[in-house]
Amino acid sequence: LPSLPVPCSMHLIQVDSVQRWMEDLKLMTDCECMCILQSKPISTEKDEQSELILSSQHSTCDNLQLLLKRAWIISTELSRIAQKLEKGRWQRVHSMTVRVNCHVRSMINKYNNCSRSSSEDMHQLEKLLIDKCSEFTAFTERCLQTEDEEILKSMKSCVNETLTTVAQYFGQLIELVLTHEAQNLLRQTELSGSLLVTESAISGLLSLAQEGAHLCRIIAKEGGVVALFKICRQDCFRCLYPQTLRTLASICCVEEGMHQLDKVDGILCLADILTDNSHSEATHAEAAAVIAQITSPHLTFTQHLSSFLENMEEIVTALVKLCQEASSGEVFLLASAALANITFFDTMACEILLQLNAVKILLAACSDKRIVDTPYSRDQVVTILANMSVLDQCTSEIIQGNGVQLLMEMLFEKSSSANPAEAAACERVQQKSAVTLARLSRDPEVADVAVKLSCIPRLIKLCRSPAERNNSDSVLVACLAALRRLAAMSPDGLEDADFQQLVKPRLVDSFLLCTNMEESFV
């Protein structure tokens, strides 16, 4: 390209050009070498069937992961280019543009070498993207050859426009590639009678689904839920049920997945699996995971719930049995999570649980540290107890099973690590145990047991000491509510100062008082 005139000597221009070339050379040669080496065949055998099975087994998931990783790198680089462009750092913009150009070519070469087939649309988009990347690189190189601010200012808008086009083409190509991969994997599940190929295809779908909601939507739109439930209805694929159900649980986090589940009577299929005692515990646990996913209180789409209610009694019965017979903490967690979610949207579920002696079963499980071994499991149990505690009949069940003692212990729930998710689970356990105590203490017998177990001093400690509740406002509100309920039933259990500050004022005033109790030494 002809150089634009710059106020420098020829010698300096040549030195700067060589330095730039040396800086960019490593990026270009690394990527190009990688493309050439990866395209070299290792074997010369032409056994296509063997090649299909082996590549399905060993490379499909790896190739998808590499593709997604490279796509993430390119996407990140494009964002960084936009930031550097905004600051006018042209040297960095150009070197990063060269890097993106190399990454794009490498990604396309790698994908075409690994993919058995690709559409004409994909080839056209690849060519558009490569041409636009080359244009982008040449454009930024020309920008380096001028120091005239007015010229750079006029060129900046053109560079921005080119960057936007590159990003659009790149996004369209990735969408097309992922759709193509999903179609290939689904085709394998439908056309292959081979257990090995079907297992590999399901593994690939699970790998895609775990990359996020957007990938789940692509799989769902391409008929993924229909194909997977078809597998779950064939006895010859029984050994693949756990993996298939795990994939379904991932896909059904999006509305498109739910729509398909409803169309193929997926809930009826899940009910059949859960109630069939010939299935393994692993299969039952993964079916419970799907139930937990589709009944999540956080979902905004609920069109599937009408068919769920029709099968709720047998599903709840099967889940309670799974909790009772769980051989591990993971199985119990999945089954109890499904039950906890179910209790949120219909009180009939709580009545069914009462009839099935679920309170006794859950309380017994909590005494087995091998089964209820994490705050996450205790969170599910206390959620069920909190939702069941609105029923008057639940009170006697909880008293008989030493449930008040368990709730008291849960008020001491503390995280054993710095894991934020675990700390949040501990907060939920404290909050829900306080809520359950507040609800149950409308019964004088429960309130009496709670007072004897020293619940009042613990609730006061949680209110007055932010560190005890991990500075959680939701725990504070629940504890204040429980304390006021117990104080109404047993006013002699509080000192005057506690009564004046935590019980007598309006709840909001007590809340504000407790949130300002941390001393400042600044």
UniProtKB/TrEMBL annotation:
Residues 13-58 form the Protein inscuteable homologue LGN-binding domain. GO terms for molecular function: cytoskeletal anchor activity. This is INSC protein. CDD domains: INSC_LBD. Pfam families: Insc_C, INSC_LBD. One of its GO terms (biological process) is asymmetric cell division. Residues 70-522 form the Protein inscuteable homologue C-terminal domain. SUPFAM superfamilies: ARM repeat. Signal peptide: none annotated. InterPro entries: ARM-like, ARM-type_fold, Armadillo, Insc_C, INSC_LBD, INSC_LBD_sf, Inscuteable. GO terms for cellular component: apical cortex.
